Amino acid sequence: MSHQRLINRKPSRALAAFLGALPFLMLFFVYQWGSDLRRQENPKDKLLPAFTEIGTAMNELALQPSARTGEYLFWQDTGSSLRRLSIGMGVAAALGLVLGLAIGALPLVGAPLSPLVTAISLIPPMAILPILFILFGLDELSKIMLIVIGVAPILIRDLCQRTKELPREQLVKAQTLGANSWQVIVRVLLPQITPRLLDAVRLSLGTAWLFLIAAEAIASSDGLGYRIFLVRRYMAMDVILPYVAWITLLAFCTDWLLLKLNQRLYPWYYANR
Amino acid sequence: MSLEKPLIHFRRVGKEYGSTVVLENINTRVKAGEFVTLVGTSGCGKSTFLKMLLGTEQPSSGSALFDGQPLAQEPGPDRGIVFQKYSVFPHLSVRDNVLVGLEFARSPWLGRLFGGARQTALAEVDHWLEAVGLTRASHQYPHELSGGMQQRLAIAQALIKRPRVLLLDEPFGALDPGIRKDMHQLLLKLWQEYQLTVFMVTHDLTEGFYLGTRLWVFDKTRHDTQAPERFGSTITFDLPLEKTGRSDLVAVESSLDESRRLAPAA
Ligand SMILES: Nc1ncnc2c1ncn2[C@@H]1O[C@H](COP(=O)(O)OP(=O)(O)O)[C@@H](O)[C@H]1O
Ligand SMILES: [Mg+2]
């Protein structure tokens, strides 16, 4: 037996992996058990479909072309959602980088823009979704705009903060090396802010998914959010549950990929932390 | 009065932050080639003095001339700086950290050199890396360097601009004693070889006596126990070190102890 305090006792790698997988396994079995239980009472139960039913439903959506359009709906939904998400996040990230850097680095830009960005970031984006539909129509643009409006202010404020947090000594040092304002921005600030941008994007991806699914639920003809809200009418849990799991998996993979990309591109950023 | 024009000439210079007087009545001249070490209790205004030379702070009163002109309102390439930390750019390799000073001057828009221009500049960079003993580390990043090597890099960075003065704010304060000795030798060698004018803040009195040609002690001459912010520090000792002896060190030490005793407990 170990005499260490609890706070000093760490699981081995194998044990940690097992402990990490355990809750998922338990969830899996609890679900199966609950599903069996309900179906013994009512074979037509829709709330907790068996895995075989989920498999059948997903086979139809992912591997069979739709009878009506000839498309593979699941992949079409995934493609549409990911396209909206990446365009929206791309625009938001570009705005965040340019404006965050400008506001953080140049007091004369910050003075007029900083209060405005703060005010915009306080508007609940869902409250202006109708305005977006009126302005940009019910097509792709309004969905992408919702993501941009929901995420860009967070990114701008965060990157402005990160810019201001860089040691002042570096700005002074650059000036003593003869840098002008532009050179300080492109050679000292920008390269150090980019990994922080990737961090901020990772953190705001959850928010972006929220706005994407909300917009798709309200006005769309495809997309992961659209499908979930469409089949809700038939209580088709055999579609909703795998879609939710799929969205979660996509979110996890994006986050992981961005982390690996950041570590690969900017090893110095991870050095002292 | 000497015929040689002083590089730095302060007359009745004072510095206040609001109602807090940090420095008062600073009168001094410094010629090119001097190595001035600045000592004094913590918070007495040594860094503030350096910041006025650097251009990140402006004097509140008096006249401060640099080469006959009023001190610049912002940092510039004629005044190099080494801080205790954060002096080097973490996202650039050792070589690029030094190269960037040349790139700023030679490439106004991109701040980057390519091809032949870059090769020419790199030859210069390598000269300075050799001068500070970093040749073998030239492709490493700052986080891979020891504290002493980072400070060597910061010095090379500053020197490639050939500044009129080199400002050092407790540059070796975070280093081990052994490493610090090496840095002393390096700094003295560079000072002689390139005829630098150096201002160096240190909290180590022995270091100040050993390195400088001239030692300044910053201290208050007047104390108000009720309102310590009423009076600022000034240069209470200005010792030409070539002629000085052990008795001066003892005198300065006891005077600093005295003012530490008078200062309100932090
Ligand atoms: N920006 C500032 N605003 C107000 N007070 C300051 C500022 N900068 C420095 N001070 C004060 O000036 C005094 C001298 O500071 P500093 O020059 O850093 O001391 P030293 O380098 O000798 O330890 C300190 O009491 C500090 O609190
Ligand atoms: Mg200081």
Q: Characteristics of this structure?
A:
heterodimer; A: 273 residues; mainly alpha; MetI-like fold; 11 helices; 78% helix; 0% strand; globular; B: 266 residues; alpha/beta; Rossmann fold; 2 domains; six-stranded mixed sheet; four-stranded antiparallel sheet; 7 helices; 10 strands; 35% helix; binds adenosine-5'-diphosphate; binds magnesium ion
Would you mind describing this structure in some detail?
The complex is a heterodimer of chains A (273) and B (266). With 273 residues, chain A is an all-alpha fold. Chain A has helices at residues 13-41, 51-63, 73-105, 107-122, 129-136, 140-165, 168-176, 181-218, 224-231, 237-265, 267-271. In chain A, α4 crosses α6 (140-165), α5 (129-136) packs across α6 (140-165) and α8 packs parallel to α9 (224-231). The two termini of chain A are 33 Å apart. With 266 residues, chain B is α/β, with parallel strands linked by helices. Chain B has two domains: 1-78 and 163-266, P-loop containing nucleotide triphosphate hydrolases (Rossmann fold, 3-Layer(aba) Sandwich), CATH 3.40.50.300; 89-161, no CATH class. Chain B has helices at residues 46-54, 94-106, 115-131, 147-159, 177-193, 205-211, 246-262, and strands spanning 8-17, 20-30, 35-40, 61-66, 69-70, 79-82, 165-169, 198-201, 214-220, 233-240. In chain B, the strands form two sheets. Chain B has a six-stranded mixed β-sheet with strand order 6-7-8-3-9-10, sandwiched between helices. In chain B, α2 crosses α3 (115-131) and α2 (94-106) runs parallel beside α4 (147-159). The longest helix of chain B has 17 residues, at 115-131. Chain B starts with 7 loop residues before the first strand and ends with a helix. The mean pLDDT of chain B is 90. Chain A binds chain B through residues 167, 169-170, 172-180, 182-183, 186-188, 191-192, 266-269, 271-272, and chain B through 54, 56, 74-77, 79-81, 83, 85-91, 100-101, 103-105, 108-112, 141-144, 154, 157-158, 161, 163. The structure holds adenosine-5'-diphosphate and magnesium ion (MG). Adenosine-5'-diphosphate is lined by residues 17, 20, 22, 40, 42-48 of chain B.
